[in-house]
Amino acid sequence: MLTINKITFSSLVKREIFRFSKVAIQTIFAPLISTGLYLIIFSYSFQNREVTEYGIPYINFIVPGLILMSLIQNSFANTSSSLIGAKYNGIIIDFLLAPFSYIELSLGFMIGGIIRGMLVGSVTYLISIFFYGGSIAHPFLAVVFALLVSAVFSLFGIIAGLWSEKFDHVSIFSNFFITPLTFLSGVFYSVKGLPGIWGKLSLFNPVFYMVDAVRYAFVGQSDISPTFSALIISAFAVALLFLVTYLFKIGYKIKS
Amino acid sequence: MQTAIKFENVNKSYGKLQALAEINLNIKQGEFFGLLGPNGAGKSTLIGILGGLVNKDSGQITVLDKDIIANYRETKKSLGIVPQEITFDPYFTVRETLAIQSGYFGIKDNSDKIDELLQALSLEDKADIGPRQLSGGMKRRLLIAKALVHDPEIIVLDEPTAGVDVELRNSLWEYVLQLNEQGKTIILTTHYLEEAEALCDRIAILDQGRVVKVDSKENLINSIDKKVVQIKFATQTSQLESRLADFDFKIAAAGKEIEIETAKADLNKLLKIVNKFEAEVVDINIESAKLEDVFIKLTNLGGADN
């Protein structure tokens, strides 16, 4: 169950990359437009505003959050649509008939999602350089955190894709989980500045730790300890990896 | 001969519906084995379990003596399953489809085998177009090529000629027979009984999730005691009809042709009656039972409720 054959595994990753590159307009360029618009609007509307908790310009504060948002959305979109698509057009049986181990399936789809997430995230960063200069306090940490977050949402996307019976079902995940959790995670504001209970509630939002960790990597400051955030994110990634591998093993909604 | 696939007490239910009940089957290496049964008999479920598309409830299946659950990586490499439904990854051309499929089975550079398959299945000139641009018959051939990229020992064809024209069907069977001669085990499910009769060495008949009979094709056909005697006369047969009260018969060609169904033991009796009848015989044709007769007798297609 836990063996990995290099060729089998890399073929799946290759297939995943091929899939999103063939529809690059909707998978790569479309997401860049929305993030580009966020950057333009926020940098224009809040050009003289400073985030008091951090003592930095607002645009520097939200760039890590915006990059993270596109990372999350695209990692999730890639695996969820790949799986629901495979179920919809029936080619899911290719993965069942072939000698894939369950961990190969989990990691293969996950890495496909990570690659698309990192690709869109990186281009978002490149665009953001025009808006805030492009400084990153801890570049290595930024990459590590981005990879971890991307892994978490790629895995979450696999679960959504397996669970969904129609394309519409995937949007339930986006609309009811990802969007609210992301918007309430402190992408646009510092949780430190939230009154009373609201700041505490944010601690139950896993995306908060992700935004906070990535922001630490970018600006060198954060609401809570980045080590703690890193632990939380890693724990999520590992738990989801186990869950996804288990779902492939039992053939959740793909085997009758 | 060694066993290619062994099904032992395999059970599968969907809710209350028992799709497979205590399936026991031994398929030998090198055999051309037929799996026949009416719709809903459980053929596709059985193949689904073999390929890992369906979870069985209980029982054991081994492929070349390896358990399909414990050793799934090995057993999947020994199996080439051509599914009934035509589905393709829309992102790849014909050649890319076969290359990525080879990769799934752990084969890095498989272009020689891919060329061989493209040629054998007359797809060379379609190698660089997408599967959506292929005709139905070509899609079916690509599906077969896909199942063969890893050169499996056992080839399973689930209704491979549904919707395929006659010419293509023949060339397809020629190729599959060729593979069988090379020593590959072939398992075929089909509802074209002529096809099974022409190709299979041994046949299992499934009905309502049970194996009702497994035997060689010859034994199965011989198990039906039936001869159909067609006689063409120069003149009307109306006088003969009254003497054939003990037989089932049909009249055709404006009363000049008669078709009589009889058990072998009654052949002599029949011929004597015909002999006494003095009209001139133009032609006689005697047919033995067909696989279809066996099929109808053994499955619920022949039951009183049909």
Can you describe what's shown?
The complex is a heterodimer of chains A (256) and B (306). In chain A, helix 1 packs across helix 5 (102-132), helix 3 packs antiparallel against helix 5 (102-132) and helix 5 runs antiparallel to helix 10. Chain A is globular and about 60 Å long. Chain A has helices at 6-22, 24-45, 58-89, 92-97, 102-132, 139-163, 167-183, 197-202, 206-219, 226-250; strands spanning 50-51, 56-57. Chain A has 256 residues and is mainly alpha-helical. A two-stranded antiparallel sheet of chain A has the order 1-2. The model of chain A has no long low-confidence stretch (mean pLDDT 93). Helices cover 76% and strands 2% of the residues of chain A. Chain A has one domain (6-250). Chain B is of the alpha/beta class and 306 residues long. Chain B has two domains: 3-222, Rossmann fold (3-Layer(aba) Sandwich), CATH 3.40.50.300; 227-288, Alpha-Beta Plaits. Helix content of chain B is 34%, strand content 29%. Chain B contains eleven helices and 14 strands. Chain B has helices at 43-51, 72-78, 94-104, 111-120, 136-148, 166-181, 193-199, 217-222, 238-243, 267-276, 291-298; strands spanning 3-14, 17-28, 32-36, 58-63, 66-67, 79-82, 154-158, 185-189, 202-207, 210-216, 227-233, 248-252, 257-262, 281-288. In chain B, strands 6-7-8-3-9-10 form a six-stranded mixed beta sheet, sandwiched between helices. The longest helix of chain B has 16 residues, at 166-181. Classes of the chains: A mainly alpha (256), B alpha/beta (306). Chain A: This is Transport permease protein. Chain A: The chain crosses the membrane at residues 20-42, 54-72, 84-103, 109-133, 140-163, 169-189, 224-248.
